[in-house]
Fold Peptidase M13 C-terminal domain-containing protein.
Amino acid sequence: VKVGILNQPFYYHNAPIAVNFGSIGYVLGHEILHGFDNEGAEHDYKGHKKMWWSNETWEVYQKKVKCFVDQYSDFVEPVTGLKVNGTLTTGENIADNGGLFQSFVVRNVNFIDHPQLNFYNLKAYKMYGALSSLGLDKRLPLEMSRYTKDQIFFISFANTYCNNDSPDFIRDALVTDEHSPFYARVIVTLQNSKHFSDTFKCKVGSKMNPNKKCILW
């Protein structure tokens, strides 16, 4: 992850903490999870081509991954009416789901309690810790004040993929891109998130809280 990404819509210097955890926090989690997907399994910590998982781990992984492949393969992209290639996009889909989960889980972690991470020496984190402890986190404009911090987290995640691609671009991407279309990256990832459905109180069995969710990590 290069420093150039620390701009909107991934990072907002003066935004509430929940906004940045939902955007750049998710992106960081996404990239970390690539170390534990089908590609990461075949490269060791030095980047050398080497399978470092046991056969048992690989077999369990493949069984869980099939859920994602089937789920995304059934997803119809609304602009083109075409289905996503769940096999082509497997690694990125897994990273999307795992990255969002990890960022949500750590959003309220007090890293000061984990000195081995050495985060408290960072000026930005000192400010973050001070604001959190005093309840002085920055606030969004009035029209957004009706949302909780957790709701803002997920809204920020979805906003990261707000776009206006042409139908031709989407058709080409469905064939060549290892990433799912932005719409699928938001909708399917949130459908799999119990944290999301709990936060927005989505009815069980509804579109955004299906009975069957795909979970890997």
The mean pLDDT is 89. The domain at 3-200 is CATH 3.40.390.10 (Collagenase (Catalytic Domain)).
